[in-house]
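#struct-pred

JT: dropping the chains for the assembly here, can someone run the whole complex?
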Amino acid sequence: MAKEVTKRAENYSQWYNDLVVKADLAEQSAVRGCMVIKPYGYAIWEKMQGALDAMFKQTGVQNAYFPLFIPKSFFSREAEHVAGFAKECAVVTHHRLMNDPDGKGIVVDPTAKLEEELIVRPTSETIIWSTYKNWITSWRDLPILCNQWCNVVRWEMRTRLFLRTAEFLWQEGHTAHATAEEAQERTRQMVDIYARFAREVMALPVVVGHKSPNERFAGALDTLTIEAMMQDGKALQAGTSHFLGQNFAKSFDVQFTDKDGSRQYVWATSWGLSTRMMGALIMAHGDDAGLVLPPDLAPIRVVMVPIYKTEEEHSAILDKMYELKKALEALGHSVKVDDRDTLRPGFKFAEWELKGVPVRIAMGPRDLQNGTAEVSRRDTLTKETVGIDGLDRYVDALMGAIRKNIYDKADAFREANVRKCDDWNEFKEKIKEGGFLLCHWDGTPETEQAIKDETKATIRCIPIDSFVCEEEGKCIYSGKPSHRRVIFAISY
Amino acid sequence: MAKEVTKRAENYSQWYNDLVVKADLAEQSAVRGCMVIKPYGYAIWEKMQGALDAMFKQTGVQNAYFPLFIPKSFFSREAEHVAGFAKECAVVTHHRLMNDPDGKGIVVDPTAKLEEELIVRPTSETIIWSTYKNWITSWRDLPILCNQWCNVVRWEMRTRLFLRTAEFLWQEGHTAHATAEEAQERTRQMVDIYARFAREVMALPVVVGHKSPNERFAGALDTLTIEAMMQDGKALQAGTSHFLGQNFAKSFDVQFTDKDGSRQYVWATSWGLSTRMMGALIMAHGDDAGLVLPPDLAPIRVVMVPIYKTEEEHSAILDKMYELKKALEALGHSVKVDDRDTLRPGFKFAEWELKGVPVRIAMGPRDLQNGTAEVSRRDTLTKETVGIDGLDRYVDALMGAIRKNIYDKADAFREANVRKCDDWNEFKEKIKEGGFLLCHWDGTPETEQAIKDETKATIRCIPIDSFVCEEEGKCIYSGKPSHRRVIFAISY
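RK: done, full complex below.
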């Protein structure tokens, strides 16, 4: 096998990189920190987009598109936001190139300097709220529920494919409301959609919770998050939804006339989920043989590999396979018949395992004779001989079982790696092993910062829909009273 | 009516701008030349994307994603390409902002200057061919058929919503082939898809043809185009497909080992269609009442407006409408019941006409009594009273009639504005009136340039699938012999 992947136990980080590249998901580009998303990886992202987009639209959200560039001055408007986002970013200063007067290629034309620099959007609150100002006059114009699918750029110093790249793809939703309550409900509704998407489509157990003030989005009054556990026990923030209060409305002077005639600032939310989710998918489910895809995200759900010696056998088996392909496609499953005649079955098996195809069907001359096929599951790496009669319905049912098993496996892993911890020395030991530690915390940013400085662990969230955390206790670090546990972990 | 649109006959250009803004399609943003695509406009673009994307995939094309930024040096690699694209573009020179030491907001951090400037992609041939170099070793790796949906930036000095904006959205396909023939076939195949999309989905008659050398894509050996005629008689280039020969393969040293063991440069195509198509849609079909949408691109195909005096009537009519909505949705038509109780029917009628909704159904108390409804067609602005029984099937059939009528109308307009012209003085007169002039041309860039300088007209294309142009004659400008006519027009 040409494409061997490092074992997880050997080097988890290398395993991840190997998998991303060798399963043809993405690769580094010639531009520092920017990735190329390859067709197979992009096909998975398209499936994520399709599922999420439909969920958004069911709640009345509409897609729109706002400019890539943001005038520099916009960032100064919201004080916290500038601190959080205007640091490392791509700055456009000129709008023309010219031939080098010395004849050495092309250079920036110094006369084409922009009056005001433009920032490539790291997130679009500022440009969107400057636009909403023109859209909102009265309570009748509210709510506004816009989303955009786009690219954003954050000039990260250390990058990793999908997890942290200078440019990444995402969706960012931006809503405008007449009341704080409505905006808060929307904030919660969207994080719940992210959780449902993670659980049902990605087979990924996640915790929904509030971020601590230290970890909030720059400019938000509250940030809700979904947090997932990777196989090395680290946490991964997989989607966030922010209640922005009236901060952006005040910065861009967006007011509306309420039913009672009074002028009010508009209430805002924003929420985003990115190609980082591709990293979560890989790290939560993958194994030493490669990617493991839940059926709903698999560009190919079933791959068929013929096993033959003669051309006659090959063609007879292919006939049977194309017949079965048709039946499976009628049930909504995407199927690939791997009829390449230059590669051996073993090579093909390994390749499709690497790419995480949920079900493989192999058929040889004896199968043809017996009316059987060999059905292999990617999630369990088990094989069964199944009669060809009714094989379509068998595979159809198998998809549900695979989906459930992938989720259950990840959930069992998480359960095994969540523990309560009430002792600071134990905390310092245990946190190194990975996993979530449910601890009491005194609620102060100082304590959170001190714990981070000593252990690199942060509060991933204050859970609201998982684990029983409501209980009296004492802060693991300061010993001060606490009313509930929070999740500490080392994170990506 | 608050939202009156300028009449076409009064000021065609103002009519266009009014329509774009008042039908809620797009607007200028705070960033020079960059537009905001509003939800209604974006919903139409999504329908264009959906239809095209499916057509691409049917031919084996896969989506992928390549970086937004291109190193400056890449542009110098392909000599013609740099001349065509590296002129007016957005140049990223720095990667950090900092607080102004003088306390006046934020400034660019001078220490964060990039070693090599990055160009925001105006088109992606260079970055993609630098990537393909890693993907291609042998003939087995070919063809590569990638497409990406993305944003691009060309620093246009004079911009118009959709037609010419600094940032726009598009798809760009980039294919790699083992032979010139295969690449040429793909070039043709993709322009034919554009033509089919224009004709069938957009109800837009287009001519397929070759660009003259002057109008070719920078770096191409051949450019195929679809050209449409707008209602002011001007031509609009609506999609192009380029045969790039081995130019980019040579610039980025992309070779493959052929079946016979020899090393060969790879053959390339690229093809793109952009949000400019939104401009074509508006200008080809719109009228003085607003947008006219072909059913396949209409976010809402049927709008229902209740007419009532009492609350009782309102609710009885709405009941009937929701019932009909369900039946129409089952037939695949999107329906909106406009149940806003603060607006009068006349206002609603005008609003949905402005937005180009193909069919409007109004129902009043008398209709309810008689079992009828008033059905209005947007394309013809005609009304009919139709029985509610079977109304769903009536409307279903109507969609086909509307699609055909919109196409036929545009086609008749074009036919009326295409003429042969063999006299230079007549040419100079006629070209001002708009329309396509089919003329003989001596095939030289000099003649084309001279004609452009004198009249602003360019060769839109050398048609290959429309009009009978193959005949002997003399160049309209130089009098030299010519074997076929070409299309001259003033263009957007």
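JT: nice. Chain B touches chain A through 63 residues (CB under 8 Å). Residues 391-416 of chain B form the longest helix (26 residues).
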